[in-house]
Design goal:
Two copies of one chain form a homodimer. Chain A is α/β, with parallel strands linked by helices. Helices cover 40% and strands 13% of the residues of chain A.
Chain lengths: 214, 214
């Protein structure tokens, strides 16, 4: 089944700091859409960096190039009826807006801002100690520490993972997709452990997460 | 309508020298598949270099990286039911085989070798004089002149554009896709002038073709 009732696709674009919870919610959404028989794909920061952007660094120019590549592929998928989930940090507002404009030629763009404060992530969600190293100046160009993050001004949805559980965030996201006409039933269909999609950095416990984390 | 009757996609991969006729046949195929109501996309060398591989050069490593990126995107499309047409030079056999293996996880891979001899192209199909410059040593790393081209050993189809007209090549390709079960009628549906897809370097009369031509 193609995404959306008229056969056009849509793109759910998660943006936010590393560790804010983008991949967690993206994975849950992926399974919900699959459970509805929809064609769906996840384009995550690290998997894309591995396959499309190897060699790019973390300068503004390189980050933008990476995001525009994700946008190019997301548009190809969206216009072919795929529900495309993207979850790169995508720190720059102007670049996200360029991607939005591109994808809206082919389908809907749903910008989801996944928020958590740096200190919360550093204190409680930083198993590899990357934020601590960045705060100590041992890692440079780390988004939210010494590299900018520009939150969306008018996201379709903001998820505050400080006060919401992942299940609550997912429900608000499903409600939004229902309200926008992309799914016919916002009731979660999937419960319990799920097979990992293999397309987010939740899988990449090695260098992958380090790269995306910056 | 998804490509192929069971909803899975397929990938038609044109390989051959610059000027051999890949983009011409690819465009004709694109319109035939569209006319059948199928979802179809073209990933051409230059358009992909522009959007996914800017900054890559023409070393073996960079060429391989470019081809693997096209393969990554082609697999995403193929497994979502899109009839995906790729027409990069893709000079290295091992790299094409890696892409074939990857895409066959998701759908069929149809390797089409588009053949024309270097001398024929240089004499009659080289409006920008690129082959002449390469033969004179003024352009380096030019496939078929001072850079290798490894023809496929067992392509699904070989098109000899020295002896066939584009219409004859298209017919043989449609016959092949029919025989393999990807289309139900091999009769050409489209005649006369067609709107250009915008996704092959036939459009790019500037630096684009120069880049892909090497």
């Amino acid at each position: 089944m193609s995404a959306t009732f008229d056969g056009s696709g849509f793109c759910v674009w998660f943006t936010g700091l590393s560790g804010a919870g983008k991949s967690t919610i993206a994975e849950m959404l992926f399974h919900e859409l699959r459970a509805r028989g929809m064609r769906t794909e996840i384009l995550d920061g690290d998997v894309v960096r591995q396959n499309l952007s190897k060699g790019l660094g973390f300068s503004k120019e390189d980050r933008d190039t990476n995001i525009l590549r994700i946008g190019f592929v997301a548009e190809l998928l969206t216009r072919n009826g795929v529900a495309t989930i993207c979850c790169p940090i995508s720190p720059y507002r102007e670049t996200r807006d360029a991607v939005r404009t591109q994808i809206q030629k082919s389908g809907a763009f749903i910008d989801v801002f996944v928020h958590a404060p740096v200190q919360e992530i550093a204190d409680h969600r930083d198993p590899k100690g990357l934020y601590k190293k960045a705060i100590a100046g041992e890692i440079k160009n780390f988004t939210g520490v010494d590299d900018p993050y520009e939150p969306p001004l008018e996201p379709e949805l903001m998820l505050d993972t400080m006060v919401e559980s992942p299940e609550e965030s997912l429900q608000r996201l499903l409600d939004t997709l229902h309200r926008l006409g992309h799914i016919d039933d916002p009731t979660p269909l999937v419960a319990g452990p799920k097979q990992h999609s293999g397309f987010t950095d939740l899988r990449l416990t090695g260098s992958g997460h380090v790269a995306e984390g910056r």
